[in-house]
Amino acid sequence: MKCLFTDLDGTFLNDEKLVPEKNRKAVEKMLEAGHKVIIATGRALPSAIAQATRLGLNKQGCYCIAYNGAQVYDLGAGKSLYHKTVPVECAREAYHICKQAGLHIQTYDDEQVLTPYDDDEVVEYCRRVAMTYRVIPEVFETLKEAPSKVLVIDFADTGKLCRVQEEINRMGGNLIDTYFSCPELLEIVGHGVSKGEALEFLCNYLNVALEDTIGCGDAENDISMIERAGIGVCMCNGDPKVKERADYITTLNNNQGGVAEVIDRFILEA
């Protein structure tokens, strides 16, 4: 049995956030042959579950990784297997830093995006990931539970995000980690949280050898997964820094069905 761990945006999904038909058919063949497909995304858990459901990956024995590895979820049983969070005080301090910089910041509950701002950033983000949002002006000041993830968004000025990342890293010390899931999205997670760590946890849980795994991604937040997997794959449309870490670079991009290329080459033909 092989396990395919695949990112969604820029990898399994096309630029319109839809599943190319090649990918859909390849996944069906892979499942019929007794292999496993695990969605590993920076998206919130509700968005990951919705995408898994559309692909028929919500049955017994199906799993997903959400929030960049902060949560591993058993889709068939409907329960969390692994969950790490951002310390409340770090989330609050990140909010103050972003407020001063004039940047959008948000977090999540079990169903929605939560943000102090009703702005273009949250509208566009929710359109992309098919989620709803709720505006709570004091959401970061009144956090009662540590969040799975905090996200900073700037669809216009990635240079500003890089500057804020440095300040947030200094503030968080060894309590948080930050990285980009795309140039417009800065992810803040608990220290040690990564897709690679979640991949290894799930492999141990399922008693699957790492050499029987394939990790597909395109962005900085996929590097840990690509490095931990038996075969690490970067999409040809991926970040050059990610390509340097990959064992294989696809010839087809995310719009053309690059994940299907990987399934055919390393799973079905093998």
CATH topology of the largest domain: Rossmann fold
Mean pLDDT across every amino acid position: 96
What is the H level of CATH, i.e. the homologous superfamily of the largest domain?
HAD superfamily/HAD-like
- Give the uncertain stretches in residue-range form: none
What's the Cα radius of gyration? 18 Å
Task: Provide structural commentary.
There is one protein chain. This protein has 270 residues and is an alpha/beta fold. It folds into 2 domains: 3-84 and 193-268, Rossmann fold; 88-190, Hypothetical Protein, Haloacid Dehalogenase-like Hydrolase, Chain: A, domain 2. Helices cover 37% and strands 23% of the residues. The protein has 10 helices and 14 strands. The chain has helices at 8-12, 21-32, 45-54, 88-101, 120-129, 158-172, 195-206, 223-228, 240-243, 258-268; strands spanning 3-6, 36-40, 63-66, 71-74, 79-83, 104-108, 113-115, 133-135, 150-153, 176-182, 185-190, 213-217, 231-234, 248-249. An 8-stranded mixed β-sheet has the order 5-4-3-2-1-12-13-14, sandwiched between helices. A 6-stranded mixed β-sheet has the order 8-7-6-9-11-10, sandwiched between helices. Strand 6 and strand 7 form a beta hairpin. The radius of gyration is 18 Å and the shape is globular. The protein starts with a strand and ends with a helix.
